[in-house]
């Protein structure tokens, strides 16, 4: 097994040799943003949308984008070439870099730290995915900037730990009586054949998988509504899904100790996951 090659500030090097200063603001403050871009065959999925979201996260934290979109794509190609595999994901993060003193104040003209690695995600096991997952609802106590894909994920870690302590794999987060998202995924509900997901804004991340699922629904004649979802609606949901780049579309079959409908992955999930797999297959075959 060759050494895993990562990218750090312009260099490609084995992961063991990559190191960052302890004064890096990513380490001290979680002062940075990140992206996870799935890659099927040689093709990153919705790369322009990921780069657009990266730009939006960077702008929100007042950090200049260190590379042009073309440069990002060149680095992705180089890194993928050095880390061969079938289904992979590019992880990238940019922090505000190293300052000589620990001070919150942003200094202009400092060098950010750019780090990238390839995650071998492997193919999704469809029969396992179809088993579905169990979740609980948890109060969403995160901040008012959940649209920023920030590396400061301690709140998400705490929420995921609450789910683990409850004996389930993930949580559906609820703020002021309305569903926001999962701890690392977006939320969808199916009711009477209509796919419903909450609108984007400061309380949830604009997931690339979420956008793709909405687009695929529209292209395939599935009714899709973007509107707030009250917690009280969850009990009568016909289906619930959580979506993300690495989890794809996970059906939630039990919630708060009760079955969701008949506790099986529903018919609309089956339709959508097939459409999604076909979409991936086209990417895998693309040159
Ligand atoms: C909080 C949160 N919401 C939603 C998502 C889903 O985003 P994407 O579909 O772009 O992976 C993620 C992914 O990590 C996340 O961390």
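^ structure tokens above, recovered residues below v
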């Amino acid at each position: 097994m060759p050494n895993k090659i990562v990218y750090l500030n312009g260099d490609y090097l084995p992961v063991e040799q990559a190191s960052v200063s302890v004064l890096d603001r990513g380490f001290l403050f979680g002062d940075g943003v990140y992206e996870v871009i799935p890659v099927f065959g040689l093709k990153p999925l919705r790369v322009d949308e990921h780069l657009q979201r990266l730009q939006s996260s960077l702008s929100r934290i007042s950090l200049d984008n260190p590379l042009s979109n073309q440069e990002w794509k060149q680095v992705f190609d180089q890194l993928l070439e050095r880390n061969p595999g079938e289904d992979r994901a590019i992880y990238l993060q940019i922090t505000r870099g190293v300052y000589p003193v620990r001070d919150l104040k942003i200094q202009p003209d400092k060098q950010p730290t750019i780090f990238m690695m390839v995650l071998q995600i492997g193919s999704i096991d469809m029969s396992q995915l179809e088993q579905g997952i169990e979740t609980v609802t948890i109060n969403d106590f995160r901040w008012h900037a959940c649209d920023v894909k920030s590396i400061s994920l301690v709140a998400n870690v705490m929420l995921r730990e609450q789910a683990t302590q409850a004996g389930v794999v993930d949580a559906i987060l609820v703020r002021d009586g309305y569903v926001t998202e999962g701890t690392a995924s977006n939320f969808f509900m199916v009711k009477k054949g209509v796919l419903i997901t909450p609108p984007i804004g400061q309380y949830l991340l604009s997931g690339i998988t979420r956008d793709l699922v909405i687009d695929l629904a529209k292209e395939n004649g599935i009714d899709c509504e973007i509107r707030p979802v009250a917690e009280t609606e969850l009990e009568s949901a016909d289906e619930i899904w959580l979506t993300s780049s690495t989890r794809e579309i996970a059906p939630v079959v039990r919630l708060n100790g009760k079955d969701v409908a008949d506790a099986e992955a529903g018919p609309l999930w089956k339709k959508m996951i097939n459409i999604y797999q076909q979409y991936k297959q086209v990417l895998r075959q693309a040159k």
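The chain is about 30% helix and 30% strand.
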